[in-house]
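Section 3.1: Structural characterization of target chains.
Under the original work plan, the team committed to producing a structural model for every single-chain target entering the pipeline before any wet-lab resources were allocated. The record below documents one such target. The sequence was received from the expression subgroup and is listed exactly as submitted; it comprises 372 residues.
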Amino acid sequence: MENLKTDFDVFIIGAGPGGSIAGKIAAENGYKTCIIEKDMIGDKGRYKACGGAIGWELVEKIDYPEEKISRKFESLELHHVDGDRFSKKGKGATIWRSTFDKFLSDMAVDSGAILKESEPLINIEKIDSLYRVSTKKGKYIVKYIIASDGATSTTLKLLGWPYFEKKNLILTITKEMKTSKAFISKMLGSDTVHAFFGIKNLIPIGYAWLFPKAETITVGWGNQINLVNNSREEFKKFENLTFVKNALKGTELKIFKSHLIPVGLRPKLYEDNVFAVGDAGGIVDPISGKGIPYAMMSGQIAIETIKTCEKRDRLDKLGIYYEKNLDKKFLRVLKAKRIARDQIFQNDENLKKFLSLWEKYRSSEIIMKRLL
């Protein structure tokens, strides 16, 4: 095995935001880097069921081109089915994940990473301190693996990692409804996104949303998976709300898709040179379901951890350093939010109190300052 040649230092499975940023940072730091993606990535391809709302700070951080933004927004309207309504100010943008992911994967390639599209993972074998990764198109000997292939990660399934508890998974349904810019502005406002709550009469643990893009309304619904009895009927309850019914009048269904979002950490995030990033590790905001920025940061932190541990000759501490660095950046807050989530969704009174506080404060402030 001493003569086994390593094809790549860093091998990334999944070209989403976490994988592409990991690829970019790895290549910039001189690691021979490969990203494999089971689908084709293109400006109009590789549809991802995602609301696609991101904060303006992320737009500025990555210098995301304005022409790739579907719609800017200035506020988030929070509707409770009882009739109460809360308005949270905050600048952001709605984007198509196909376009966004293409932009990030191009960044990785421009930095020197190799991207292999339409190349699904088949198997992973441990060989001493290395891995043999088999795909539909080839076999590769690699040192480090970054699992960035979502909540149902094939990578981590093949490696026998434990899966999420059911209480830490949200089943979402997404519809893309085609309409006109003018109709969207009339019904939903020209610079507003909408979220809908109601434990007793809508969704026990979760929420629904209308996120307008240029000429499309992304209609979404998400509930804790073990509380779902009939997802289509429960989704229909949301669609039958007067506000929603009016907003979708005359729209044309283009896409209908279900998707899983983790809202709690996977039981482990690292083992034997394998890092779980983004949704694969459950690194998602448990209250809002926001995952894109955390996926990107966890991808970056994974590579920075490798670099630091190699420099200090502390490869035996990779897992400890990875989680410690995640904690420093944001993971401690996400863990606290996961605990608080159960309190928030305990009853509608608690939920409305949280929504009222959310108008004025960031959710992290509410939780860490114990304002609830």
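Residues 221 and 235 are 6 Å apart (CA to CA).
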